[in-house]
Each structure stands twice: as structure tokens, then as C-alpha cells.
Amino acid sequence: MAATVVGGGSLLLAWQLKDKRVLIVGGGDVASGRIESVLAADALITIISPDEGLHPLTRRYIKSSERITYHDRVFAGLGDLVAVDMVLTAVDDVEKSREICDMCRALRIPVNVADIPPSCDFYFGSQIRDGPLQIMISTNGQSPKLANIIRKKIELSLPFNAGEAIKKVGELRTRLKERAPGVGGDVGRRRMRWMVDVCTSWEIDDLALLDDEKIRKLLDDGWENNRVPKMEDVGGKRAQTAISTRWMNGALVLPVLGFLAGGACMAFVLLRPRP
């Protein structure tokens, strides 16, 4: 039976921009959001925009970040694209935006033109960020507002300490590689199987409580003996899920821990105020 692939989508990637040079043409409201996104990715940013067009948030980024170079002027042409790795335009000039897009494509520089999807080599999605955890919801440029609504629904369904758990699992993985180095082969496959077993056997709440001593015991008692110890076996106590609350659209959201098919699950109860 032939595999079926449904086309029309985008290739979603985690683009590594650390110390890459990103040019942002424009400094208004949309540009300020772009600046925040690429600053979080540790990029080196050049902003070109007349001072009178700067959004207050853009001004604060320019004043507070050493990773931003600002030019108080309009885009000057090909000279502004020298040694640039990515271009983002956010100006209220469709013809100028398309002109910049054409220059970028001639130079093979990835470009995003705000509000003109056909002129975009990539799109910005609605993102969830919790430490190392990043989730992007993309509508392929068709409905940013719906992407934002969907993001809020997904965010409410996530464990409250997922980011911390991912960070601790990353530390465990690094320590394991130090103890059992090598790329591929039997050792690599065994490392992968053991890490999968740890992540599926432990609850996210428990993984978030890993510290140096617990990681050491987990490796000593688990990896060395080809087993996955329980939390209690490495000197820990099973985490009690914190009762946290969030307000969304006027509703109080309470997480409720339950159990289905032998595993923990998280549900959310929305308590709406009476009219």
C-alpha cells in the first residue's frame, strides 16, 4: 500500500540563529514582535527605521540590548544586505517590501515580509515557550488570530513544569553521554533505549525534581545495571502535583490530577463566574 502524503504544508524547523545576523526593516508594532522573537534566539540584529516610526517597545529593545545595532533611516538598497543571514520587513509600503524581497531572493537570503504571505520564505507562528520547551502553531500565514486562540488552548493542557523536566532530562542525557561516549553503534542505541525508558517510566513532575545527586544515582543504579529505578530508589519522593490556577477569558482554570489506564492525566476545570 502506497504511503499518502498530504501537501500544502510548511516544513516546521527550529532555526538556530545564535550569533547570526538578522536585518529588520521597520520599527513599528509588528517589528517589535519580530525583534522579541529573534532576540530570544540570540541573534545579532540590525534595525533600519526612521526614529519617528519606532514603537515604544522597539525603543526599549534598542536601548537595553547590546545585540542590536540601530540605523535611524530608511532602507538604502543592496548595501544593507551585505553579510546578512536573514531579513524581516515590517513596513507600511507594499512596493518597497516586494522590492526588498526580490533583492533577498536574488542573493539567496531568507526573507519574511509582514502581511504578504507570497513574499515569505518562512512564517512566524504563535509560540509557547517554557524554558527549553518551544511549541509553534502555524496556519501557513492564513490566520494568525486563530493560531493565537489555538495556542492558548494548547498552553492550558501542558504540565505546569514541563520546561523544568526537559531541562533536567537534558542534564541527565549529557551526563550519560559523558559516561558512555560514542556516536551510533551499540552504545548509542542502548543510550537511546534507556533514555526512552526513563522518560516513559517517570512522571513529568518527578523528572522535574532531578538534581545532581539523583542523576548520579540514576546512572549508577540504572544505566550501569540496565534498568530504570523508581524515584524512591534514587532518594527522592514522588512529586505532589501543585494546585495552580490560571485565569483565561474570565474563567478560573483549575488543574485536576486523575488516573486513566494506570497513568496520570491532567484535566482542567473551568469555573466561570455567575452573571
TrEMBL record:
Ranges where the Siroheme synthase central domain occurs:
130-155
Q: Which organism is it from?
A: Piloderma croceum (strain F 1598)
For whether the record's keyword set contains Transferase, the answer is no
Keyword list, A-Z: Membrane, NAD, Oxidoreductase, Porphyrin biosynthesis, Transmembrane, Transmembrane helix
TM regions (residue ranges): 247-271
Recall the GO molecular function terms of this protein's record.
ferrochelatase activity; precorrin-2 dehydrogenase activity
Q: Which PANTHER family match?
A: SIROHEME BIOSYNTHESIS PROTEIN MET8
Leading EC class: oxidoreductase
Which reaction(s) does the protein catalyse, per the Swiss-Prot or TrEMBL entry? precorrin-2 + NAD(+) = sirohydrochlorin + NADH + 2 H(+)
Record-listed E.C. numbers? 1.3.1.76
Q: Which Pfam families match?
A: NAD_binding_7, Sirohm_synth_C, Sirohm_synth_M
What name goes with this protein? precorrin-2 dehydrogenase
| GO BP terms | siroheme biosynthetic process
Its pathway? Porphyrin-containing compound metabolism; siroheme biosynthesis; sirohydrochlorin from precorrin-2: step 1/1
Segments forming domain Siroheme biosynthesis protein Met8 C-terminal: 159-229
